Amino acid sequence: MTDATQTPRARLALLRPGSWRPLAGLGLAFAIAAALIAIAGANPLTAFGAALSGAFGSPGQVATALTKATPYLLCSTGVALCFRAGVINIGGEGQIALGGLAATAAALAWPIADPFAATAAALAAGALGGLAWAALAAVLHLTRRVHEVLITLLMNFIALLMVGETLREGLGEVGAGFPQSPLLPRAVWLTRLMPPTSLNVGVFIALAVALLAALLLWRTTFGFAIRATGASRRAAAYAGFSVPGVVFGVMCLGGATAGLAGAVQVMGVQYRLIEGYSTGFGFISVAIALLGGLDPLLLIPASVFFGFLETGMAAMQRQVGVPSALVGVIEGLVMLTVLAGTASGARQARV
Amino acid sequence: MDWAHLLDLLAATIRIATPLAFAAMGGILSERAGVFAVGLEGMMLSGACGAAVGAVLLGPAAGILGAALCGGAMGAVIATVTVRHGADNMVTGIAANILAIGLTNFLVRVLLGHGASPRIHIDLLGPVRIPLLADLPGLGPLLFDQPWLTYMAALVPLPLTLFLSRSRWGLTLRAAGENPLAVFAVGGDPLAIRFRAVVACGAVAGIGGAVLVLGQVGTFTDNMTAGRGYLALAAIIVGRWTPWPTIAACLLFAAADALTLRVQVFSLPVSSYVVQMLPYALALAVLVGLGHSARLPAAAGTTFRRGGG
After folding, report:
1. Out of B94, B287, B288, closest to residue A286 by CB
2. Which of A227, A232, B29, B92 has its CA 20 to 30 A from that of A316?
3. Contacts of B297 (CB under 8 A, 6+ apart)
4. Where does the record locate the signal sequence feature (chain A) (predicted)?
């Protein structure tokens, strides 16, 4: 008999592409949700029907769901890359918030007349903001050898409070009565695709990032280094990859996509920075990354699904009176079932 | 700044520290056994929900029991996924926290509000006056005229310290967190130990949630723990996984939190946001400053498999 202590993150990183486990987790989550709906005294079929028609009933509803999915897709892409390398970056919350802050600060401080240049500059600033915060976490993790989850988790709270502080001091709108920035200059507003809904070109940015991440992960040397590091840091080092380099690189990528998510949300939906505008985005993105099996391409349907789930459940509450808090139940259960399933099943996995 | 303001600050500090202390003491059990307690927030929130439902339906004693049961149940969910299935502790904890927000929000509406946000009113647990001590001038009435849950929070570190450092069970629990193979080698079952530790953690943290509902707010509101579980997690780090220093960290964090509402009273040169950052920055500084000597249990976050390979 052999005994072994192992790091669970290695097994998380080995999630096979195209695994059926996330779908089984989703099925289980919905079965429990149906039971809860029955406890609430409603017919689960009627309730899910209301949710479906609420999600897909009109083009406007679909656009709303896609708008919600946009930051989720961006952030979960970064989370998936990190998890693939065995780096449990749960700093999305803070990285998104700082991305939005950086984009806002750049757009307000250095107005550029040309819309294209202005938008590109603000988006880049957002990505850099998230990247810088993640890079700081990576440096602390690598130099002091402290668990990255504890660092990214603690840094989330600091980042959120930093946003509050800047909105109180320099960036805040005078007399708004709520911690928010003034409206951004029109030049950085992302083009709306389907007014009056908030759907904007950010959705294409998110798609492009997911496609690029898939290419990076499956078709490049760095992508192989990511997967090798996730499978076994020792083996990756033996194969000649710099493990600290990969960890740093993947954290920076994760921070950049999260920062971009914040920038897109600020520039495409609200046109201003509002305190707490991204609450929960980072954690939901972890759920999406798991549901999508850490495969950037599968994150596209996974995040769109979560977008529809949120709009659908809101409609269900309006029509059937079942509390929409069920969204959180389903999100949490999907995460738990996928985690339990992959941990037990990753034994046959390959890089 | 005068005496009355200082007493007011101290009273608020004790009030805020009480639920934190329960959560942190539970978290120490879990983390010393080798399971990161990121799910503390969810366990506390489940406990708060259990306390509200129990107290409304059956009375305050049932509220405390309900809190321990619901917190323990959330602990069992986390333990099943992390300990039994060997999933990543941290991500599981986050998942449990998301689940707890949704589930408590849903259940409170369904069980107490017929689908809508319920109006719950629970009579607060009254203060228990300790004779003689409460008559001491100055701090007497402040420290010795508190609800009994507050006294309990102040006393929990004593049995916990004795349990961890002096009892056979405590030794095995710590061994499961430092070197599970050694536990296995002497015929113990590190997985069973960890499972029980996480469930116990949930029950204790759940009582922390009950303090909020039964001792302070008198109702249940959505996501009412509002990050206190994460704060307790930071307190454990600052207290370096030992009960008394962790209690001290809880008091320090509570004082910082109490100050955020009183920044102007004490005419501090910084904003409330900066004061709120203090606990997290301090925890980060301890982790980063001490690095590997921060005394994180050696096998925390790893899993253990019999006959694996």
Report:
1. B94
2. B92
3. B31, B32, B33, B34, B174, B177, B178, B241
4. none
Distance CA A229, CA A241 (A): 8
Torsion sign (Cα): A325, A326, A328, A332: positive
Tokens of B206: 């759940």
Q: Residue B299: left (phi > 0), alpha (psi -120 to 50), or beta?
A: alpha
| Distances in whole angstroms, Cα of residue A4 to Cα of each of A47, B182, B205 | 47, 11, 31
- Enumerate the β-bridge partners of residue B304: A5
Chain-chain contact of B99 with A331 (C-beta, under 8 angstroms): yes
Of A19, A88, A22, the C-alpha closest to A347 is A19
Instruction: With CA atoms as reference, report the closest residue to B196 among B161, B239, B163.
Output: B163
Chain A residues 124-143 with CB within 8 Å of chain B: 140
Q: Which of A276, A88, A136, A17 is CA-nearest to residue B95?
A: A88
What is the full DSSP assignment across A4-19? Answer: EEE-HHHHHHTPPTT-
User: How many Cβ atoms are within 10 Å of A135's Cβ, its own excluded?
Assistant: 17
pLDDT at site A1: 29
Short-list B92, B23, B43, B95, CA closest to B303: B92
Q: How far apart are CA A185 and CA A266, in angstroms?
A: 12
Q: What is the pLDDT of residues A81-115, one digit of tens each?
A: 999 999 999 999 999 999 999 999 999 998 888 99
Would you call the peptide bond into A196 cis, given omega within 30 degrees of 0 as the criterion?
A: yes
Are the C-beta atoms of residues A203 and A190 closer than 8 Å to each other? no
Computed over every residue of chain B, the mean pLDDT equals 88
pLDDT of amino acid A19: 66
What residue ranges define each of the domains in chain B, with the CATH number in brackets?
Answer: 3-120+135-294 (1.10.3470)
Left (φ > 0), alpha (ψ -120 to 50) or beta: where does A294 sit?
A: left
Q: What is A65-307's CATH number?
A: 1.10.3470
What parts of chain B have a pLDDT lower than 70?
Answer: 1, 115, 291-294, 305-309
Nearest chain A residue to B92 by CA distance is A336
CA distances from A85 to A248, B67, B204 (A): 10, 39, 35
